[in-house]
Amino acid sequence: MTGDSRTPVVVAGTRFGQVYLEAFRATDAPIRLAGVLARGSERSQACAARYGVPLYRDPDELPDDVRIACVVIRGGLLGGPGTELANRLMARGVHVLQEHPLHHDELADCLRTARRHGVIYRLNPFYRHMPPVRRFVGAVRELLRRQRPRYVDAACGFQLAYSLFDILGLALSGLRPWSFDPPAVPGASVRPDRTPPFRTLEGVLAGVPTTIRIQNELDPADPDNYAHLLHRVTIGTDAGNLTLVGTHGPVVWSARPVFPRTVADPGASAHFDQAVDVRAAPSTVVLGPDTSASYEELFATMWPAGVAAAVDQLRRDIPGGPARADGQYQLTLCQLWQDVSALLGPPELITGGELDPLGAADVAALAQAGKAAAGE
After folding, report:
1. Is residue 207 part of a domain?
2. Do the domain assignments include residue 355?
3. Residues near 167 by Cβ (< 8 Å), separated by ≥ 6?
4. Quick one: 52 and 148 in the same domain?
5. pLDDT exceeds cutoff 60 at 1
6. Domain check: are 67 and 159 in the same one?
7. Which one, 6, 123, 125, 328, has least CB within 10 Å?
8. Helix axes 161-171, 324-344, angle to 10 degrees
9. Do the Cβ atoms of 261 and 250 come closer than 8 Å?
10. Is 195 within a domain?
11. pLDDT tens-digit profile of 229-253?
12. Structurally, how many domains does the chain consist of?
């Protein structure tokens, strides 16, 4: 585009890459979609036509003005050529944002390539850019400035383990030291057709006692679906805990229960033996919106906005060069993810079948039944 001062970006990959492509539609950041880089399938041709940009089939075809590439193709660990493509792009002087996850050694190779060619390479854990996750991380950091962390309780689907540990690493301001015991083997009382979907790991993360529950199941025919949840995280202190109920919110503060230690007038505050009268404060508070967006809204707005934020952050970092601290954190994150994956073992292969979602009317019926049961 003649006279366009925005930074040109290409997107490689058109499956999850569609979220990246959509990121350029409404962002105010000075970035623009300059093309799709793919093998030329009907899908990739359709994507290029939809977004009105050229389709490039090889990195050598890219115009010289392309500054950034988003590689949204699986890496070698998951059987894809994403890492090889990222290295080729960096050898051409293109800065790269690559979608997670990667094997530790793949990431180390990419970081070396980036240093060798004087470009920035960044692995994108994706979910850290969601507003509810940022809200949770910010609230936890403020809480831990005031209180010592006592425990972490977290759960996710198998596909989300890497990003779960990223959320925890951001909230706890680090990942080391960590150590986890292998999950317990289901006992004889568990029927083969009733195997619990979650495996539980007990240990420490960033020195904090931690329980991690991971749904270690995968449908090979549809690997992106059938997780019972994305992320759910609770970080507790002596005062109470903060919970990210789901990846897209809400964030909830729950005060730790405090009961009277002596018999006293219920209207008196002294019997709590506390410097702060906790009785007047709500036992539970939602921080921010108390509902989350629909999946239609997430795919159309929140996820693309997160991608745009990640791309623009890379753009703004280009003048200063690569940040070693970020690379080291991502290497540590890769190693943790691999250690946990080894403890869990291969996911159980399942046949997901048809999803059976509840519609808005169904959820409203649940709410009504709850109100009736509570006598409201």
Report:
1. yes
2. no
3. 127, 128, 133, 136, 137, 231, 233, 244
4. no
5. no
6. no
7. 328
8. 130
9. no
10. yes
11. 999 999 999 999 999 999 999 999 9
12. 2
Residue 343: count other Cβ atoms within 10 Å of its Cβ.
Answer: 16
State the pLDDT at residue 196.
86
Check which CATH number belongs to the domain holding 18 and give it.
3.40.50.720
pLDDT band for position 357 (cuts 50, 70, 90): confident
Query: If pLDDT is split at 50, 70 and 90, which confidence band does 135 have?
Result: very high
Q: How far apart are CA 219 and CA 376, in angstroms?
A: 42
Do 228 and 197 form a contact (C-beta atoms < 8 A)? yes
Compute the distance between CA of residue 258 and CA of residue 260 in angstroms, rounded to an integer.
7
Residue with the two structure tokens 């540590």: 332
pLDDT score at 282: 85
CATH code of residue 189: 3.30.360.10
- Rounded Cα–Cα distance for residues 255 and 190 (Å): 36
Statement to judge: residues 35 and 111 lie in one domain: yes
**Who wins on pLDDT, 323 or 40?**
40
